[in-house]
Each structure stands twice: as structure tokens, then as C-alpha cells.
Amino acid sequence: MKKNISIILTTFLLVTAACALETSGNSTASTGSTAAASTKGETNMNKTTRVKITVKGKTLYAAFDDNTTSRAIIAQIPMTLPMLDLYGDEMCYRYPQTLPTDSVKSYIHKKGEIFYWPPRHSFVIRYVSTNEKLDIQHIGQIESGVEIFDGIGNVDVKFEIDE
């Protein structure tokens, strides 16, 4: 009986510690750039950064929100990511490490939305609306032309700050 309680307590402590690390906001992506410093929980959803997105010679623009995850991604720009065309409705790049988050919420995402899905470290551009509800960190929104991704397959996507 004491052994079972010890195992349960140890498992609980490990899970609690892992959750604390996941939500601490102290991790950064390992893509050759250092993420911008920020205070946990500090967000200003009114401020956005305009990002130029180039795919197969065509240009799109997106407004990236000002939050911890967006700032970590913006700190890596300019960058070109090999994005996977998943499920016929999203483009996805999976970071090798967790990105920091400060406002993960569960909701149905829409066409043109850019978000981060923490469980798989996935940076996603949604090009078709679905009724799927996930816990995600919103990053931004494509202004127009997101249909370019429909049926494109796996492709390199370039991201630059629009000056």
C-alpha cells in the first residue's frame, strides 16, 4: 500500500513539474535565432506586425499579434520554413522545441488564421475553415489570398517583416 501511494505521489509530482515547465514561457525555438525577451503574460493585442509571406513566387501579407509566441516567431524572421500541407486545410511547420505561450485558448479557428498548437509545437496557417476546436495560441491573420495554399502540397514558405 505504501509503495502504491509513493508511486502515485511521484507520478503526480512529475506531471505537475512538466506542466509548470510547459506553461512557464521560458523555452525558445532552436532555429538559429534568439527569441525576443518578454514578460510572461504581457500582451497588447492592438499592436500588430505586418509580415510578408512568399510561396511559389506569390506574396501574401499577415498581421501578427503582439504576444509571447508571435514575438518568438518574429525574432526568427527572415526565415524560410518547409511547411507540410496537412489534412487538406492547413499548412504546418513543427518546431523541434516548444515555443513560449501566454494565452492558449480553446476555440474554433477560421480560414486565414495563423496559430501555434503547443502539443506538437506546430506553427499553422489555416487555409480552410473547419469546425475543429483546439487549444491554440493565436498568432495572427492572413489579410487575403490564403487560397494559394489550397492543394499546393508541401512547400517552402518564406517569412519577412514588411518594412
UniProtKB/TrEMBL annotation:
<dbReference type="InterPro" id="IPR041183">
    <property type="entry name" value="Cyclophilin-like"/>
</dbReference>
<dbReference type="Pfam" id="PF18050">
    <property type="entry name" value="Cyclophil_like2"/>
</dbReference>
<feature type="domain" description="Cyclophilin-like">
    <location>
        <begin position="53"/>
        <end position="160"/>
    </location>
</feature>
<dbReference type="InterPro" id="IPR029000">
    <property type="entry name" value="Cyclophilin-like_dom_sf"/>
</dbReference>
<protein>
    <recommendedName>
        <fullName>Cyclophilin-like domain-containing protein</fullName>
    </recommendedName>
</protein>
<feature type="signal peptide">
    <location>
        <begin position="1"/>
        <end position="20"/>
    </location>
</feature>
<keyword id="KW-0732">Signal</keyword>
